[in-house]
Amino acid sequence: MAITGAMIGFLGELSFNVTSLPAIEQAIFGVAAVLLISSIFAFLARMLRQPLIPAYVITGLIAGPLVLGLIQSRELILAFLEIGIVFLLFAAGLEISIRKIKEANLKKILTIGLIQVILIFLIVFLSRSFLNVSSAQAVYLGIILAFSSTMVDIKLLSDSGELVTLHGRLVLGILLLQDLVAIIAIALFTTGSFAVGPVIFTLIRLAIIMGIAVFMQKYVLQKAFRYAARSTELLFIASLGVLFLFIVLSYVSEISIAIGAFIAGVSLANSPFKTELESRISPIKDFFSILFFISLGMQIVFNGIQQHFVLLLFLIVGAMVFKPVILYFLFRFGGYQQKTSFQTSASLAQLSEFSLIIGILGLSLGVLTESLLSTVILATVITMSFTPYLISKKDFVYRYMATWMEGKTHLPIKENIAYHDAKKKTILLIGAHRVGSVVLNELLRKKMRDHILVMDQNPEIISALARKKVASIYGTVMSPDVLNKIDLHDLKMVISTSPDYEDNIHVLKKVKAVNPKADVVLTGARISETIDMYNAGADYVITPKVIAGEKVTSIMHSDKKILKREKKKHLEFLKEIHKVLY
Known about the structure:
By secondary structure, this protein is mainly alpha-helical. The chain has 3 domains: about 1-70; about 80-410, Na+/H+ antiporter like fold (Up-down Bundle), CATH 1.20.1530.20; about 420-580, Rossmann fold (3-Layer(aba) Sandwich), CATH 3.40.50. It has 24 helices and 7 strands. It has helices spanning about 1-15, 25-45, 55-65, 75-95, 100-105, 105-125, 130, 135-145, 150-160, 165-190, 195-230, 230-250, 255-270, 275-300, 310-335, 340-345, 355-365, 370-410, 435-445, 460-465, 500-515, 525-535, 545-555, 560-580; strands at about 420, 425-430, 450-455, 470-475, 495, 520-525, 540. The longest helix has about 40 residues, at about 370-410. The protein is globular. The termini are far apart.
């Protein structure tokens, strides 16, 4: 800490001699200095196991005009902000997959997402007198509070392997809808008024840019990138070319370049070379995202912010309480299980990078003041900083709240989605997606339909199984009443394809306590958890990644003909198991 203080003190003394340098050299010195300070704070944050975003914002606060003044130029700070936003939204657009969202029921997501945005907007607008803001400012703040962070959520859910789960796909769907609403809102705000003429012309220009993106994605980009993929450098340059093409189109159309960056990302999101593109873009995105959060810290001013203290609390509570609660009940009314609804809503408890873009836009148009923008920035940073803790601990929080929620939320929600027949069930399959669909396909192939009972927390899967006359029940093993509806005494085998360690241990204890002779097969996400489940009494534990490695090693030395044969068999098998559910 002494070294850190000495370094910052040295930079502070040096900053007084920098103003005499030419502008370009001042900029280079400023960037070098803030990156040095940010690396120190990032190391400290990592050592203390804290998220990095607050470290970067603190760097900006210290290095900016408020403290050390290493970067004095407001134009340079805003340039960093804009470039950072461009690459962040381009990367966010790359993560958007319409196919994944369709798997999570696009119609329900559209309904839930739109209702949530409208309700949050109305809450803020109707509270404008309490918050001491004008009607125009309330419009901006209502939109700002309505959105959650695509950048933060996708990063955290991807790192934890939750993007492929049901709640992960629901989060992705809500974020995509919010992003589309945000794009329209930014386009409308850019007009500077809500007069019918300018609004219509702006929407037409936006529709034209989107139309160009769809056309290029369908007829140009696929072929061009197939050729560019022969060289990783060419692929990288081509992706940047697409990014700046849409930035130019947005700029010429007098629409925020952030919108162009996002549309460019979405246009490349379904490319077969998406993974390579992301790996190439990632270093640039990381660099400019660091500068983005540092620049945010530089934007914070404390003069006048005390008069908006109530608004600051309102935005934080609104993002972390109001919004998740509204989403929780909307998902429950939509037919989703208590746990899925909680996991989805908890993941969306923060403000968005789009909130910042809209805030900066409001400042440039003279609607928001600097103190209001600083309040929005502080609320965004605080809620984003809490998100890593909330996502990593949401299952822990849920276990403590589940019983209370079960007893308090008396809602007219249809939870008895199921298909029953009168036959005795001897096999319980928990989870029928991915690994579960393979198991189910094999059981059906062996004419064991009458002996199977499937449990799943995705209502779409249960509905699909009901149409195919497969006995099924909607719910999770942690729901108090679900396992009680199943006669565990008759079971000869229980197969859980859920990678959730707590769920699996609960199933193991529950089944073995009632029926010790039943074989219990579980799924382990980590080797350490797999060993623990064996020690707890599991008869077998599926380890998908280890099994995948074993499969690869079995074919890695095969000749071309064998690989082609394996590929053909694999494709046929995938199509077969896909038919089980869809």
